[in-house]
């Protein structure tokens, strides 16, 4: 008679928490309980299930959601602010510990102004995005001429680098070559330093003036 031995170790049937790690990108001192209370209040009104925000380790916070849909809504709504400083998210990884230094990418919508008439195109979108960072998506309606006075693109911004206020682009129109300065307007941009262009401090905390 054959004998079946069940040597499989019992598994933990509890569901994996749906969570994100969060960092507040700032050199300014801030109140942790106030941050947790503020973000809890904002996200609880937009999510279908309760959201919890708790202190984690190394200055990080743990945000736990009731469903993947709520997590997606918070990520899609980026960037989020507290006290005019930006928040940065990352998914917890058991095999690769997340440290505050690893968190420095945030999606932003940028409106690009100053594009000459009949010069909007997806090629221009890709070129502009390649000069800034990775392209996430394009507001297709703004690529059409006569709809908006700007191109609207969503890019993944490295917030450790100074933000760009615009760029010069060489255009060729009807056989004529010319250079045009394009202005960038960042939607929901928090406070930043007008001296160096970085987002983690303002003029008051600029190291050269401390």
Automatic annotation (TrEMBL):
Which InterPro entries did the record assign? At4g02000-like (IPR040256), Zn_knuckle_CX2CX4HX4C (IPR025836)
Q: Which residues form the Zinc knuckle CX2CX4HX4C domain?
A: 157-205
| Domain of life of the organism encoding this protein | Eukaryota
What protein does this entry describe? Answer: Zinc knuckle CX2CX4HX4C domain-containing protein
Source organism of the structure:
Cannabis sativa (Hemp)
